[in-house]
Amino acid sequence: MTTADTSSITRRAALRRLGLLTLGTALAPSLALAGCGEAGPRAIAYGREECAWCRMTVSDARYGAVQLTARGKQQVFDSIECLAESTLALDPGAQARAAEWSWVTDSLHPGTLVPAPVARYLRRDGPGSPMGKGFRAFASVADADREQRQYGGVTMSWDEALTVLGGERGARG
Predict the structure, then answer these.
(1) In the chain, domain spans
(2) In angstroms, rounded to a whole number, what is the distance separating the alpha carbons of residues 99 and 38?
(3) Which of 32, 81, 129, 157 is least buried, going by the fewest C-beta atoms within 10 A?
(4) Residues 6+ apart with CB under 8 A from 120
(5) pTM for this structure?
């Protein structure tokens, strides 16, 4: 091999390495973002999972709820009421964190989870929910208001729902 051939091979190898390095540099942020997607719950396995609070089988896709623990474990609940009871059992500081890591099912779109603090809640007389307290969640205020006009009841935020359920909890001792 002559000196010209050696430098040509070296230059070719260098260009190949530079190309791979450039490709790797360009792909790295995309790969990193793909692995760091927004943390959220996995889908509820209706009919197979047990409520973390009351131990009933989570079976109705209109009412399920989820909460991620500080360690990232997913707890599944069969109703808004059970999620609320579990949250109310925590100390006040942990309640605030728990709200940020809680999702409820949009009852108009069964199986679709909405962040609990963002959802709007409707409470109507009669059973209407697995625990019999008549709570349903909606992805928007407009949806909750429309259901309220059609069927009656009271709409409220997550904090208001916790207050109502907490008051009932205290009343029964």
Answers:
(1) 1-37, 65-171
(2) 16
(3) 32
(4) 137, 138, 139, 140, 141, 143, 144, 145, 155, 156, 157
(5) 0.73
